[in-house]
Amino acid sequence: MIDVHRSTTTFLCRPCARRVDEDAPHDLSRQREKTDALVPIDVLRVDQTQVRLVDRHNATCATQAPASALDQHAQRWGPGMPYDTIMDSKIRLAMAAIKADDLEQLRTLVAADRSLATSRSSTSHPTLLQCLVLSGKHAAHKLDMARLLIAAGAELNESLVACGSCDNVEVAELLLDSGAALNGTGGWSPLEEALYWNSRRVEDLLVRRGATAHNLRIASGLGRLDLMERFFNADGSLKPTAGSINWPWGDLEVIEHSNFDEAGRRQLAARFSAWKNDRQDIINNAFVYACMHGHVDAADHLLARGAEMNVIPGGFDYAGTGLHYAALNGHRPMVESI
User: Fold this and answer.
1) Residue 11: is its pLDDT beyond 70?
2) What is the pTM of this model?
């Protein structure tokens, strides 16, 4: 039987999950400039050999803990290391395998602990499947790794939205074929994500599969004049179905529980709180979507409905007008039009 017990206290470097002691060379002077980057942990010993709970950061920090040792410690974490720290350390190992395009290493890790596919990280990409979508987009084995995580029970819907942020159309198609919700599960949809980030291949895939333009923002981004008109009443007011302003980072509650640092959460919360979400704001927001995708007719239609051409509306991380977004995405006819 493997003998696992606690030993002396050491430190775990929060940014890269490396142990800081004499066996793991580290720039302590730099870390001490920001002491909250160091987290005290209990060192594990397995058969008198220290187990490093680390990411494969580099050659001097590549020792991987046997899954059985980590599992035993996770079961008796009690007064020692918090469970989420254990999981974050294990998830980092799997993330390193994904980023290295190491299918066999990922297969080994998931076989030893299938909960890796369903666990959430508190410090990085929320799940391994999202890590694969975002950081493994160009990996040769990305589809095989995705199938591995899906078979182990990975959540699909959030990862489909993530595909829209980086135009990962190959994994998006696999997720849809595996049962991911085409229109999302409420709130921000995969199609909105694709429109926001100008991910044209994923946008085309979702539209071909039948994704709905269920608010004014989406209809404007697609240039669907026929659908846009349905969100207005006869007197020019907006119907409730026109929707409110939204964006990839969610509302205040979602922002508060995100993996952003404190400064990042404050910045996002301040922007979200500044939105008025009245008729004018919603139309201005939709106008930018029409401009950023080069739909001149849709932009003209919104201008006729009262959109303000030179206003920087809410709902975007990059503060710009419709003209800025049209130029950013290379839509010269739209730039010349407005």
Assistant:
1) no
2) 0.76
Rounded distance between C-alpha atoms, residue 325 and residue 301, angstroms = 18
Instruction: Answer yes or no: are the C-beta atoms of 325 and 288 closer than 8 Å.
Output: yes
- Alpha carbon distance 307, 134 (integer Å): 35
DSSP string computed for 93-126: HHHHHHHTT-HHHHHHHHHH-GGGGT---SSSSS
Report the 10 Å Cβ neighbour count for 16.
14
Tens-digit pLDDT profile for residues 46-97: 233 333 333 333 333 333 444 443 444 334 333 344 445 567 888 999 999 9
Q: Are the C-beta atoms of 288 and 322 separated by less than 8 Å?
A: yes
Tokens representing 148 are: 């591995």
C-alpha–C-alpha distance, residues 167 and 193, integer Å: 10
In sequence order, the 6+-apart residues with CB closer than 8 A to the CB of 159 are: 127, 129, 130, 132, 133, 171, 175, 180
Angstrom distance (rounded) from CA 31 to CA 28: 5
Q: Which is nearest to 62 in space by CA: 33, 88, 100, 101?
A: 100
Does the pLDDT at position 230 exceed 50? yes
- CB of 92 within 8 A of CB of 126? no
In Å, the largest CA–CA distance within the chain is: 78
90-to-102, 141, 286, 321 alpha-carbon distances in Å: 16, 21, 42, 44
In the sheet with 49-51, reading across from the earlier edge strand, the strands are: 19-20, 4-13, 38-46, 49-51
Q: How far apart, in whole angstroms, are the C-alpha atoms of residue 184 and residue 193? A: 10
Q: At CA 20, angle to CA 16 and CA 22, rounded to 5? A: 140
The 10s digit of each residue's pLDDT in 136-146 is 999 999 999 99
pLDDT of residue 45: 29
